UniProtKB/TrEMBL annotation:
<keyword id="KW-0346">Stress response</keyword>
<comment type="function">
    <text>DNA-dependent ATPase involved in processing of recombination intermediates, plays a role in repairing DNA breaks. Stimulates the branch migration of RecA-mediated strand transfer reactions, allowing the 3' invading strand to extend heteroduplex DNA faster. Binds ssDNA in the presence of ADP but not other nucleotides, has ATPase activity that is stimulated by ssDNA and various branched DNA structures, but inhibited by SSB. Does not have RecA's homology-searching function.</text>
</comment>
<comment type="function">
    <text>Plays a role in repairing double-strand DNA breaks, probably involving stabilizing or processing branched DNA or blocked replication forks.</text>
</comment>
<feature type="short sequence motif" description="RadA KNRFG motif">
    <location>
        <begin position="252"/>
        <end position="256"/>
    </location>
</feature>
<dbReference type="InterPro" id="IPR004504">
    <property type="entry name" value="DNA_repair_RadA"/>
</dbReference>
<keyword id="KW-0227">DNA damage</keyword>
<dbReference type="InterPro" id="IPR041166">
    <property type="entry name" value="Rubredoxin_2"/>
</dbReference>
<dbReference type="InterPro" id="IPR020568">
    <property type="entry name" value="Ribosomal_Su5_D2-typ_SF"/>
</dbReference>
<keyword id="KW-0547">Nucleotide-binding</keyword>
<dbReference type="Pfam" id="PF13481">
    <property type="entry name" value="AAA_25"/>
</dbReference>
<comment type="similarity">
    <text>Belongs to the RecA family. RadA subfamily.</text>
</comment>
<feature type="region of interest" description="Lon-protease-like">
    <location>
        <begin position="351"/>
        <end position="453"/>
    </location>
</feature>
<dbReference type="InterPro" id="IPR003593">
    <property type="entry name" value="AAA+_ATPase"/>
</dbReference>
<keyword id="KW-0378">Hydrolase</keyword>
<keyword id="KW-0067">ATP-binding</keyword>
<feature type="domain" description="RecA family profile 1">
    <location>
        <begin position="66"/>
        <end position="215"/>
    </location>
</feature>
<keyword id="KW-0863">Zinc-finger</keyword>
Length: 453
């Protein structure tokens, strides 16, 4: 092996580095995630020389202007970014293959090009013709958008420094490679190297860069989790492949709050923004059916109403079947145990299927009360009033506990025409009197069931 080169092992999920192969990663606990790579250990010398010149600065002497933000033309994306694109930021957009990452970023390019912003879209996955075909579905483009099909990092660096666009999109990081690194594109060292280079470009030239990264559960391609700590912002694009809507979730953001979500719908003309997700989630709710109730969950600062469905039926086997789609399976089991113990429902002989309609995933404890009421409604086969909504965390003694942002949730319910809102008794005190919606405070599950059924 050449001088300065060494063999190391990396965890593909978290980037943990080790000199020997291990079955289980000490960093993230993942099994069989280590891959072997050859790295060049001689590089750090240069860095050390530069560090010697560094000067320290007093925090009071640092001048900040108002940070410049560029709007992407998509309100949902702007919100997740914290108000638009920050100059010189590096944003990672991760997600399963085929979820719509390229479509989303091409739409951003389109909007920016219509505002006369210089954008460079670099694709290592598709040919110019393929991008053009996609672009034609999306709509009209301005003439400040340039395309480049390239995977060599040196060439990309040269092109960016020469053309100096304001925004660059790299689709995808797993196809980019540096010739000096022997491992294949998509390996941990290549992906890290590529991100490092892009980071230098972003900070050095003040260019904002979007990086697309595919998330793979298993396989040779390094997951973008390895880069999470290197970039400024991490957004994940998720959704059910079979449902049309997509959720963009902020996981890390140096320039704004995380937990914000953006909701999109995949149409024939690309992604369409869903401004009122609650309305969208509740469309198609059955009327007069038992086992269905509307609950409210917060996603960041946004209340989202969703329909919780439960189907409880007699089990023909000794081991009852239980499933939870869109929410935590263990939580559903726990809530069923609470119902069994505190209310005396004989659920242990029943199969139970709980589903959050629309394919969305919600894990906030505030939907506990909804899950409980849906299960009881199905068990007793009594429908719940359609204009009723509920939220609250359920504890092990069957008590209904406080949740945050009560006022926003009630307001959202009112906006969508609900007439009754069942919420934790302790949350009721802080609410303003409201004539359009009947607010019912409950302190335990029994009270809620008595009121509703
Ligand atoms: P794409 O952006 O290529 O996914 P990614 O870059 O995350 O791998 O999106 C792929 C899917 O989106 C593809 O299955 C087709 C669908 N699609 C539409 O339904 N409508 C459209 O207008 C476009 C462009 C894509
Ligand atoms: Mg793509």
């Amino acid at each position: 092996m050449a001088k300065g080169k060494a063999t190391v092992f990396f965890c593909q999920d978290c980037g943990y580095e080790s000199s020997k192969w291990m079955g289980q990663c000490p960093g993230c606990g993942g099994g069989n995630t280590f891959v072997e790579e050859v790295i060049d250990k001689s590089a750090p010398a240069k860095v050390r020389k530069e560090a010697a010149k560094a000067e320290v600065v007093k925090i009071a002497d640092i001048k900040t202007g108002r940070e410049e933000r560029l709007t992407t033309g998509l309100k949902e994306l702007d919100r997740v970014l914290g108000g638009g694109i920050v100059k010189g930021s590096l944003v990672l957009v991760g997600g399963d293959p085929g979820i719509g990452k390229s479509t989303l970023l091409l739409q951003v390019c389109r909007n920016l090009s219509m505002q006369k912003t210089d954008v460079l879209y670099i694709s290592g996955e598709e040919s110019l013709q393929q991008i053009k075909i996609r672009a034609e579905r999306i709509g009209e483009f301005g003439d400040t958008l340039s395309l480049l099909c390239e995977t060599n990092l040196d060439t990309i660096k040269e092109v960016i420094s020469r053309t100096k666009p304001e925004i660059v999109v790299i689709d995808s990081i797993q196809t980019m490679y540096n010739e000096n690194i022997t491992s294949a594109p998509g390996s941990v060292s290549q992906v890290r190297e590529a991100t490092g280079v892009l980071m230098q470009i972003a900070k050095g030239l003040g260019i904002s860069i979007f990086i697309v990264g595919h998330v793979t559960k298993e396989g040779v391609v390094a997951g973008p989790r390895v880069l999470e700590h290197m970039v400024d912002t991490v957004l994940y694009f998720e959704g059910d492949r079979h449902a049309a809507y997509r959720i963009l979730r902020g996981v890390k953001n140096r320039f704004g709050s995380t937990n914000e979500i953006g909701v999109f719908e995949m149409c024939n003309e690309g992604l369409r923004e869903v401004e009122n997700p609650s309305e969208y989630m509740l469309s198609g709710k059955p009327e007069g059916a038992s086992g269905s109730v509307v609950a409210c969950s917060m996603e960041g600062t946004r209340p989202i109403l969703l329909e919780i469905q439960a189907l409880v039926c007699h089990s023909n086997f000794g081991m009852p079947r239980r499933t939870a789609a869109g929410t935590d399976y263990n939580r559903v089991n726990l809530l069923m145990a609470v119902l069994e113990k505190r209310l005396g429902l004989s659920l242990s002989s029943c199969d139970a299927y709980v589903n959050i309609a629309g394919g969305i995933r919600m894990n906030e404890p505030a939907i506990d009360l909804g899950i409980v009421l849906a299960i009881v409604s199905s068990y007793k086969d009594v429908p719940i009033d359609e204009k009723t909504i509920c939220f609250g965390e359920v504890g092990l003694s069957g008590e209904v506990r406080a949740v945050s942002m009560t006022a926003q949730r009630v307001q959202e319910a009112e906006k969508l025409g609900f007439t009754t809102c069942i919420l934790p008794e302790v949350c009721k005190a802080g609410l303003k009197k409201n004539s359009n919606i009947n607010v019912v405070g409950v302190s335990n599950v029994q009270d809620a069931i008595r009121y509703i059924l």
